[in-house]
Write a structure and sequence with these properties.
Helices cover 29% and strands 15% of the residues. By secondary structure, it is an alpha/beta fold. It has two domains: 217 residues, Periplasmic binding protein-like II (D-Maltodextrin-Binding Protein, domain 2), CATH 3.40.190; 189 residues, D-Maltodextrin-Binding Protein, domain 2. The strands form five sheets. The protein has a five-stranded mixed sheet. The chain has a five-stranded mixed sheet with strand order 12-11-13-7-14. A three-stranded mixed sheet has the order 8-15-16. Strand 9 and strand 10 form a beta hairpin.
C-alpha cells in the first residue's frame, strides 16, 4: 500500500509518552520507543503513516531507555504495565561494539533466532545551545547568523566557551569571551547549566564533541569523555560555585528554560542548556509541536573556518549545517558485505567536523533482522521506506529541524529494506527462518 493510500485510512497509529500503556497493548501494534530528541517528529510521521498492516507506537523516553528496552526485549523499560516484544528503538547514542556483540551472541539473536540487530541512521541533527536571560544586542555586540524568528544576529560561542560553561569553569556571562569581538560579554548574569539527568543520546552527542576539543585549562581540570550520563564527567561532583540542574527528557529541559525565562528580576540566572532543535523555536523547527517562537539559541564557531572576517565562522544549528558536518565523514558508508554486517560501521562520527555545525550527528533506529510476525516486519519496512523516500515524510523531518541522511538512503534501502545489494541482511529475508524471530 503506498503512502497516499495509507494516509486515507482511518489513523490507527498510537503514540505514547509513557501513558495509556495497558489499554494500548490490548491491540496488536508494532512497539517502540526511546529518544526524546526524535519524539515530536517520529510521532508525526507515525500519525501520517496511519494504519498499515499493523500500527506503530512510540514511547518518548530517552536513548538509554530505548537501548535497554530493545537489547533486553523488555517493554517495561518504557512503562511498567507493558507486555509484549519491543520491535524497535531509537537512540541518538550509538550502541557500543560490546553491546552489539553481546546482543548478537544472546538468546534473542540465536536461540530465538531473531538474528543480529540492525543499527542505521534515522536522521541527522544538530545539538543546539539554548539559553534564556542571556546577552542581547542591547548589552553586547552580536554578529552570529539568525537562529530565532525575527532576529538579525545571534549570540556566538566558540569551543573554549562551551568547554568553560559546561564544565562549570565559567559561571557568569561576563567571564565568557564573545568570539566575534574578542572581548568578554558585558552582561553580568550567573549561568545555570541545565543538563540531562537520564541516559541521553543528546548528552552523548554533546560530550562527544567536548571530548574532542576541550582542554583541562579551559575546563578547570575536568576531562570530558563521550557519555550518555552527563554527571559521569564529574566524579567528584560539580565545581564549587557552579550551578547545575538536571532534568529528565528534552521536554523537561525545555520546561526549565521556560521557568527561568519568567524570572526577570535583577540578578536572575541565565539558563544554558543543550537540546535538539525541535524543542527550540519555529525558525529552526517550524513544524515541531514542542517549539516556541522565542527560544533563544546560540550559533557556534567552527574552528576550522579560519582567515575569515569576524562573524563568518559562526554557524547556525540548522539541519543544512548538520548535514554539512555529517557529510565530512560520508566516505565511511559501508560498501561491502563484510562492512555492512558490522553495525558499528553505520554510525558516522562527526564529532569535530571541518565544516558545518560543530555539534552534529545522527540519531539511529535499532531493529531486529528477523521478526516472528510477518506483519511487524512489513509495517517496519513500509514505514522506513516512507521515512527515507517520500517528500511528505522528509517535509516532517525538515520541519522539526532534522534531515534524512540522504547519502545513506540508497545503502540502507539496498541492504536492509530490500536485498538488492545481495548481502542478505534485509529484514525478514532469506536468513530468517519462517515463524521465528523477535
Amino acid at each position: 500500500m503506498n503512502f497516499n493510500k495509507r494516509k486515507s485510512c482511518i489513523a490507527a497509529a498510537l503514540v505514547f509518552s509513557a501513558i495509556s500503556a495497558s489499554s494500548a497493548m490490548a491491540q496488536s501494534v508494532v512497539l517502540g520507543g526511546g529518544s526524546s530528541l526524535v519524539g515530536p517528529s517520529i510521532t508525526t510521521e507515525i500519525g501520517d503513516f496511519g494504519a498499515d498492516t499493523l500500527a506503530l507506537t512510540y514511547f518518548i523516553t530517552s536513548s538509554g531507555t530505548g537501548q535497554n528496552a530493545f537489547l533486553n526485549d523488555n517493554a517495561t523499560f518504557f512503562n511498567a504495565t507493558l507486555t509484549g516484544s519491543v520491535d524497535y528503538a531509537n537512540s541518538d547514542a550509538a550502541l557500543s561494539t560490546t553491546q552489539i556483540t553481546s546482543y548478537d551472541n544472546s538468546t534473542f539473536a540465536t536461540t530465538d533466532k531473531g538474528g543480529p540487530l540492525i543499527q542505521i541512521p534515522f536522521i541527522t541533527t544538530p545539538i543546539t545551545i539554548a539559553y534564556v536571560n542571556g546577552p542581547t544586542s542591547s548589552t553586547d555586540t552580536l554578529l552570529g547568523p539568525q537562529t530565532t524568528p525575527n532576529q538579525t544576529h545571534s549570540v556566538a560561542l566558540n569551543d573554549s566557551d562551551l568547554c568553560g560553561i559546561f564544565s562549570g569553569a565559567l559561571t557568569n556571562w561576563h567571564q565568557v569571551t564573545n568570539p566575534d569581538t574578542g572581548s568578554l560579554f558585558a552582561l553580568s548574569a550567573p549561568i545555570k547549566v541545565i543538563y540531562r539527568s537520564d541516559g541521553s543520546g543528546t548528552t552523548d552527542l554533546l560530550t562527544r564533541h567536548l571530548a574532542q576539543v576541550c582542554t583541562t585549562a579551559q575546563t578547570g581540570g575536568i576531562t570530558f569523555l563521550e557519555t550518555q550520563t552527563f554527571t559521569s564527567n564529574f566524579p567528584s561532583g560539580f565545581p564549587t560555585g557552579a550551578t547545575f540542574v538536571g532534568e529528565s527528557g528534552s521536554g523537561n529541559v525545555k520546561g526549565e528554560l521556560v521557568s527561568l525565562a519568567s524570572q526577570t528580576t535583577s540578578g536572575s540566572p541565565s539558563g544554558v542548556a543543550y537540546i535538539s532543535p525541535d524543542y527550540t523555536n519555529t525558525f529552526l523547527a517550524p513544524q515541531s509541536s514542542s517549539a516556541t517562537a522565542t527560544q533563544a539559541v546560540a550559533s557556534l564557531v567552527n574552528r576550522f573556518i579560519t582567515n575569515s572576517p569576524l562573524g563568518t565562522a559562526d554557524i547556525a544549528p540548522t539541519y543544512q549545517q548538520a548535514d554539512a558536518a555529517v557529510k565530512t565523514v560520508e566516505t565511511s558508508i559501508p560498501n561491502t558485505a563484510l562492512k555492512a554486517a558490522n553495525q558499528s560501521n553505520w554510525v558516522p562520527n562527526s564529532a569535530n567536523p571541518t565544516t558545518g555545525y560543530p555539534v552534529s550527528g545522527t540519531s539511529q533506529i535499532i531493529l531486529s533482522e528477523c521478526y516472528a510476525t510477518p506483519a511487524v516486519a512489513s509495517s517496519l519496512v513500509n514505514f522506513l521506506t516512507d521515512h527515507y523516500s517520500t517528500a511528505e515524510f522528509t517535509s516532517v523531518v525538515n520541519g522539526n529541524g532534522f534531515d534524512v541522511p540522504t547519502a545513506y538512503v540508497s545503502a540502507i534501502t539496498a541492504d536492509f529494506l530490500s536485498n538488492t545489494s545481495g548481502f542478505n541482511l534485509n529484514i525478514n529475508g532469506t536468513e530468517c527462518t519462517s515463524g521465528s524471530g523477535r
